[in-house]
Design brief:
The complex is a heterodimer of chains A (about 250) and B (about 450). Chain A is α/β, with parallel strands linked by helices and about 250 residues long. Chain A is about 40% helix and about 25% strand. Chain B has about 450 residues and is mostly helical. Chain B has one domain. In chain B, helix 8 runs antiparallel to helix 20 and helix 10 runs parallel beside helix 19. The termini of chain B are far apart. The chains are: A alpha/beta (about 250), B mainly alpha (about 450). The interface between A and B is medium-sized, with 34 and 35 residues.
Chain lengths: ~250, ~450
């Protein structure tokens, strides 16, 4: 009996020590895509036996700072529109996977379709204004907004005639019936990624790729019409390094 | 087979509801406790209470934050009357009419009557505010997208700036303008709402996340408040007060104060929407109107102003709850905490949800908070006042120690402890030199500076 108890206790200890511990830096706020994705990766990793330390940071800048300094096995959801601002780029050492990519959209109000003269265009504060002018012409007035929600509200309230916004908010605007939207093939593509530190990125990629095929993730991607590229890690990284240049800040 | 499954699900659902209710109850009770203390401590206010409670609030979710604030702000309206009437000291800035009229009761040893009718008027004012909101809510929701318009925000912020320049520090623009400018300058470093990258960081990485809010609030708001607390010499004349039966007070209120209370509710509700001043304007406007109507009836004057206070308090929360525009100093702090907790009131599809939260979650607890307020501010008024038996100097020491711990804790979890400490020292010294002034204009501009800059730029572009 005594031996059985010792064996059970040893098994418990063994299982505890074998469980791999990983930190997820949640850099998003409740209701946002970064937060939702971080939560789904947490659930997926826990379901696969990982012990996850979930750190709610809430601010991307703060999370990047911690990511750069940490010596613990850590992963973090990330996107290409942040790399120049945060000065943290995708490399062979930190790149885990490319989860999805989405084009930028251009929405126009119904009233603006016949408008002559200068057109006011709402855009995110980090967008490259020269490219927007290349697409919409130089006879426009660019109106900066803090984020995609603020852009959506601006165009809904009638502040502007047009807006450059992400896919989710543009589809929402189209659904309101106040205007039309279309995906741009010229504006930079936003790529959602996962990066890691102090981990075996190849091994983690296998695990996280499997997580992204879980029901939760599949529903998340399909309901938002998010395109999932399938390629090798090297090809994905090459693709990212090429497309992230569109987000360069002047 | 299906029956146990249904029972099991129902049981889990019940447990979830109970857990959620417990979380809400915790937020309401802590808000009520904080409100009780804040109301009776001279010089303290809702804004100061919000800052002191920050570590607790950081662990709260959105609903808990809203409930805490609602309970705190409601309770302060009740308990602020106690020191105003008994001691002639305004617990809150909007308790001044209560000081003038309440002391007339105290001189005749009838302070308990004054406290009782004020508390009854406050409850009535709160309930009428809820009723008016219920009637008008569909109109508000149908026209809510107009509140997103940059032009509306532009005029609202122009009003707030004019208000900051002309109301505080006895309307001295020469004092208020530099305070506003300093607040605006402090809001500049770090991330902007309209430009990419970080600005005015002076090569310091810690500056990328801006000047820490808590250090500014402690240095430039709490420090001057602590100095003003030291000035009070509290004289207690509670023992001389007559014991007036509850029944007498209740019927006194019914017979003499109902019309004043109804007038106060409507005036207070309308004034509650005015940015920056809401309850202060509500109390004083109602008091002024009542003075014309019932010149020499202190009971009516007192009830009219106290009713308006509570009605205005509820109304002042509506712009924030419905469309995310904070209109008072304490709401600005709440707003920042709500955003940190993931709140996104500007979502087009969330206005209905916000209205639903108001009536399904906030209003029932609001009624509960008012009933507790009635109890604390009326039958338990003397016991509540006993808290003030602690010498003011000790209270200041406790306050200072709490602030140091709070600053260090927030700096630690923000990975900027050294930066927080340096900022605290700088702002405490600045706060010492500004102790004679009301620093609210500075705080307003510091918190709203980025948003105001963006709205003004867009208005110019559009």
């Amino acid at each position: 009996m005594k031996n059985i108890i010792i064996a059970i206790v040893l098994c418990c200890f063994a299982s505890t020590t074998l469980a791999e511990t990983i930190t997820i830096l949640n850099n998003g706020k409740v209701g946002g895509s970064f937060n939702a994705r971080s939560q789904m990766y947490k659930d997926g990793l826990e379901a696969r036996g990982f012990q996850v330390e979930f750190e709610n940071i809430g601010k991307i800048g703060q999370a990047v700072k911690i990511f750069k300094e940490t010596d613990k096995p850590t992963i973090m959801v990330y996107s290409t529109n942040q790399v120049y601002k945060q000065d943290l780029f995708h490399t062979q050492d930190n790149f885990v996977l490319l989860e999805y990519e989405q084009p930028m959209w251009i929405c126009k109000t119904l009233d603006s379709l016949d408008k002559s003269g200068k057109v006011t265009v709402a855009h995110g504060k980090g967008y490259e204004t020269d490219i927007i002018k290349k697409v919409l012409g130089t006879d426009i007035v660019l109106v900066p907004y803090k984020n995609s929600s603020a852009i959506l509200n601006g165009i809904l309230a009638g502040d502007v005639d047009a807006a450059v916004n992400n896919q989710g908010k543009s589809l929402k605007y189209e659904a309101s019936g106040q205007g039309t939207c279309e995906a741009s093939s010229v504006l930079p593509v936003m790529q959602a990624t996962v990066i890691g530190k102090n981990i075996d990125v190849k091994q983690m990629r296998e695990v996280l790729l499997a997580v992204t095929y879980d029901d939760k993730f599949a529903n998340y991607h399909s309901s938002r019409k998010l395109a999932r590229p399938t390629a090798s890690a090297e090809q994905e990284l090459q693709n990212i390094n090429q497309k992230q240049k569109g987000w360069k800040i002047n | 087979m299906g029956q146990p499954c249904v029972e099991f699900s129902t049981s889990i659902l019940t447990q979830i509801v109970v857990i959620l209710m417990m979380g809400e109850l915790l937020a309401v009770l802590t808000g009520l406790l904080a409100g009780t203390l804040t109301g009776i401590v001279p010089g303290a206010g809702v804004l100061v209470a919000m800052i002191i409670a920050t570590p607790l609030l950081m662990g709260f979710d959105i609903i808990q934050l809203l409930l805490f604030y609602m309970s705190l702000a409601s309770m302060v309206q009740f308990t602020g009357t106690i020191p105003a009437v008994y001691l002639g000291i305004p617990g809150e800035t909007n308790s001044l009419p209560a000081v003038v009229e309440g002391t007339k009761f105290t001189k005749r040893a009838k302070a308990k009557l004054a406290i009782g009718i004020s508390a009854l008027g406050s409850v009535l004012g709160s309930l009428i505010a809820v009723l008016i909101t219920f009637v008008l809510i569909s109109v508000l929701i149908n026209h809510v997208s107009m509140f997103f318009a940059n032009t509306l925000k532009f005029y609202l912020y122009v009003f707030i700036i004019i208000f900051c320049l002309t109301v505080y520090n006895r309307g001295n623009i020469l004092v208020n303008a530099p305070l506003c400018l300093l607040g605006f300058a402090l809001s500049m470093p770090g991330e902007s709402d309209i430009t990419p990258g970080f600005r005015y960081t002076f090569g310091m990485e810690d500056m990328q996340f801006g000047v820490p809010l808590i250090t500014v609030l402690i240095g430039l708001l709490i420090v001057p408040t602590a100095f003003s607390m030291l000035k009070y010499d509290i004289k207690r004349n509670i023992d001389a007060d007559h014991n007036i039966p509850f029944k007498y007070t209740f019927f006194y209120f019914i017979r003499k104060c109902i019309p004043s209370s109804l007038r106060g509710s409507v005036i207070g509700y309308l004034c509650g929407f005015v940015p920056g001043v809401s309850t202060v304007l509500a109390t004083n406007a109602s008091y002024s109107v009542e003075k014309k109507l019932s010149k020499k009836t202190p009971a009516r004057l007192l009830v009219a102003s106290e009713t308006a206070n509570n009605s205005g308090q509820f109304a002042s929360m509506l712009p924030l709850l419905l469309i995310g525009i904070p209109i008072t100093g304490s709401e600005v702090v709440l707003y920042s905490l709500l955003v940190d907790a993931g709140w996104s009131p500007f979502q087009f599809d969330r206005v209905d949800l916000n209205a639903e939260i108001i009536f399904k979650t906030i209003v029932p607890w609001f009624v509960f908070a008012n009933l507790v307020g009635l109890l604390v501010a009326w039958p338990l008024a003397k016991k509540t006042l006993a808290i003030l038996s602690l010498p003011t100097k000790y209270m200041v020491v406790v306050l200072v120690a709490s602030m140091l711990i709070l600053n260090s804790y927030l700096g630690y979890i923000d990975y900027r402890l050294g930066f927080y400490s340096v900022c605290l020292i700088v702002f405490v010294i600045t706060g010492y030199f500004l102790k004679k002034y009301e620093t609210i204009p500075l705080i307003f501009m510091f918190i709203l500076g980025n948003e105001i800059e963006a709205v003004f730029l867009r208005q110019w572009l559009i």
